[in-house]
Amino acid sequence: RNNNMSFLILIRHGQSIWNLENKFTGWVDVDLTEQGKLEAEKAGSLIKSQNMKISYYYSSFQLRANHTMEIIKKILNDNNNFIKAWQLNERHYGALTGLNKIEMAKKIGEDKVYEFRRSWDTRPDPLNKNSPYHPQNIEIYKTLSKEDIPDTESLKDTYERVLKYFKAEVQNKLFKENILIAAHGNSIRALCKYLFQLDHEQISKLEIPTGNPLIIQFDEKLKIKSSKYLDRERAKSLLVY
User: Fold this and answer.
1) Helix crossing, 63-76 with 34-48: angle to 10°?
2) 90 catalytic, yes or no?
3) Which end of the chain has fewer CB atoms at under 10 Å, N or C?
4) Average pLDDT in the 95-120 region?
């Protein structure tokens, strides 16, 4: 292939226990289901079949994304470290954290739940700082400054933190290197909004399937040349080139 081409592979973690239970997960650590592990294994095989050298691996601070990455790297037989960045975490759902989406819809109405899930700049109520789900009470976030730890986030908040990190740490490497990011529905949605130049309306409709690698090819000016999901059977519609 042309040396001036580079690839970014984005993958949302495999199905997690709370995906299965239909709960707002956010910054809480839950592991993959058996199906989620199988999705990650299949993703690893699909990525392996591309025969490309991946120079950098990025994931969030969260177990489900890290576990997905570990499964993929094992299949790729690559021992390089992956970089964990809290900025790639899932959106923080505030007081909705741990609640069931269907029960919430009954309580506050489907429109309201949809607004919380998909509107651009609506934040749910903040999560109580005494909650065991609050990042301040989770060991892995002890290294973060208090200012960096959210109580709640809108999609816009998530977009801003993901993008700031992506532009500072990842984007320039794409001029020469292939990169794999294993993250979450909303952090990947944020990256897609930026990379594919989606508006607020389009981003709210974009579904990111679990455990299905999205491979994006860039030219030497970092313009997108092509994009596709590697698992065709589970591909969601994407604005394709």
Assistant:
1) 40
2) yes
3) N
4) 84
**CA dist 137 to 3, 24, 148, 152, 158, Å?**
47, 18, 14, 15, 20
User: Do 34 and 223 form a contact (C-beta atoms < 8 A)?
Assistant: no
Separation CA 45–CA 14 (nearest Å): 14
> How many C-beta atoms surround the C-beta of residue 20 within 10 A?
13
Written as six digits, the tokens of 240 are 């394709």
pLDDT 10s digits, 207-241: 888 999 999 999 988 999 999 999 887 766 655 43
Q: How far apart are CA 72 and CA 50, in angstroms?
A: 13
Read off the pLDDT of residues 146-156 as tens digits, 9 standing for 90 and up.
899 999 999 99
Which residues, in sequence order, are CB contacts of 45 under 8 Å at separation 6+? 75
| 235 secondary structure, DSSP code | P
Catalytic residue among 90, 92, 153, 184: 90
- Cα(89)–Cα(137) distance, rounded to whole angstroms? 16
Phi then psi for residue 182, to 5 deg, are: -105, 115
- Residue 159: C-alpha distances to residues 72, 154, 189 (Å): 25, 9, 8
Chain segment 93-106, per-residue pLDDT in tens: 999 999 998 888 88
Who's near 179: CB < 8 A, 6+ residues apart?
6, 7, 8, 9, 54, 55, 56, 57, 58, 170, 173
Q: What secondary structure letter does DSSP report for 199?
A: -
Distance (Å, whole) CA 87 – CA 120: 18
Which one from 13, 92, 134, 184 is the annotated catalytic residue? 13
